[in-house]
């Protein structure tokens, strides 16, 4: 997938997943190596692993966190 598709699809999957869920993303766009870590940092998610596989495929393992605004507020999903 070419950017911004990897991050957009990752975002969509994470929005439907519970906090703590792990998602594996495979992307062929070299810019994903920059975009995915940035997305995780800005969105309150954790990038657990990143590997370069064969044929230019990049693998990212992401753990869903609280959304950035919620994390900054100190609230948890149970508070809502």
Describe the 3D structure.
The protein has 80 residues and is of the alpha+beta class. It has one domain (5-74): Translation Initiation Factor IF3. Helix content is 36%, strand content 24%. The protein is built from three helices and three strands; from the N terminus they run H-E-H-E-E-H. It is globular.
Kindly provide the name of the CATH class.
Alpha Beta
Count up the helices: 3
Instruction: Please tally the β strands and state the result.
Output: 3
The topology string of helices and strands comes to HEHEEH
Helix content: 25-40%
| Strands ordered across the widest β-sheet | 1-3-2
The CATH architecture name reads 2-Layer Sandwich
CATH topology: Translation Initiation Factor IF3
Integer count of domains: 1
Give me the CATH superfamily.
TusA-like domain
Distance between the termini: 35 Å
Low-confidence stretches: none
Domain UPF0033: 1-64
Protein name: tRNA 2-thiouridine synthesizing protein A
Organism: Paracoccus sediminis
Keywords: Signal
């Amino acid at each position: 997938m070419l950017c911004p598709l990897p991050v957009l699809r990752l975002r969509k999957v994470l929005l439907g997943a519970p906090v703590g869920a792990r998602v594996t993303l495979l992307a062929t766009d070299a810019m994903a190596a920059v975009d995915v870590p940035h997305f995780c940092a800005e969105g309150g998610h954790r990038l657990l692993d990143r590997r370069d596989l064969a044929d230019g495929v990049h693998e990212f393992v992401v753990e869903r966190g609280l959304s950035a605004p919620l994390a900054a507020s100190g609230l948890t999903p149970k508070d809502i």
